[in-house]
Amino acid sequence: MELVILIVLIAVALVGVVGLVAGSALRGRTRRGPIRPGPDSSGLDAGAASPGSATEVAPGASPGLAAGAPPAVARPGGPEPAAEPAELAGQAGAPGGATEPAEEIAPAAGGAVTAEPEIVSPRAPLEVPAPAMGRIVRLRARLARSQNALGRGLLALLSGDNLDEEAWEDVESTLLVADVGVAATAEMVDALRERTKVLGARTAADARAMLRDELLAQVGTSMDRSLRTSAPDRPAILLVVGVNGTGKTTTCGKIARLLVAEGRSVVLGAADTFRAAAADQLETWGGRVGATTVRGPEGGDPASVAFDAVKRGIDDGADTVLVDTAGRLHTKVGLMDELSKIKRVVVKQSPVDEVLLVLDSTTGQNALTQARVFTEAVDITGVVLTKMDGTAKGGIVIAVQRELGVPVKLIGLGEGPDDLAPFEAEAFVDALLGEPA
Question: Which SUPFAM superfamilies match (predicted)?
């Protein structure tokens, strides 16, 4: 029994001695510091400072950086990712340990210090718009519905064997349904009656010639339909106005294509700041043909954007500045007052050469109501009729010109980028009447 107790005491004493020796060795190793791995070790701490190391800790920097473990900083977007060696190198030169963006201090090739450039996708090759002249001739088939409603309907009546009172009433109804307007319809019926009494309309060719002359008289061949897109010693300024849904912004882009096709340099002003993506839409149109687009923040002041666009056009020496104003209901007085403000602001830098009113030709008499109100807010110099390839009757050209006293200068005949055509009276009337039999 005494032998067993002696063995246990000896075992306890040995365990105690081994523990003391192990503890002393561990404490001595801690005082000497951690063993640094060699340069080929995969465990190298990116933030550790050593003689000859590329990463240094600036005076005043926090101890955590010296240990290679920067503290996490809470940001609204979530925790900041761990710092890379290049970022720690940038911190070394900042006074008081201030942190600067890595892209501002990272040395570029050759040792020069530059900011990291923004990545911009290369532009696609610029499109070449179709020539402006003769577009209406190439697109005459698009007027098929107007042709059926106005031209061919009247030809069928006037070339009949017996032009009695009932036939003349049908002629009058055809003109009214085609949106020619009451006053213009009365004038045309009286003129046609007189000519048939004097000259007669013995054949379809005679009827066609007679109707062509009267339509040309109403449409007008002596009006100046040219766009004032150039001015001496300054850019020409064009404002485009209209209600929502008429195709106003699209028309601006198509006008830019027309001007580029004529060899002019164009600056676009995206002053429709209230409609979502209007500025993006206009910028896309301009980018296709190399036109510069000036835009502001969404919901910003349209007059400010228009002012900046004109200034940019003057500074760049552009030929034309084309400003797309915000679409507005003609019944909203405040919006119409804002339109007047845009013109006043633009005039402080340069005179306005054209104010084009964009109207949806399919809305008929409602388009005339809109035209009256817009004319009160700004001096309209020309009209653009869109969607003439749709359900428009053709007579809207006559009605709008009589109402406003200004010419129709452009007509939209489709959704294609080059489907906006300068208005040519003779080509338009010939398209309405169709090919002679």
Answer: Domain of the SRP/SRP receptor G-proteins, P-loop containing nucleoside triphosphate hydrolases
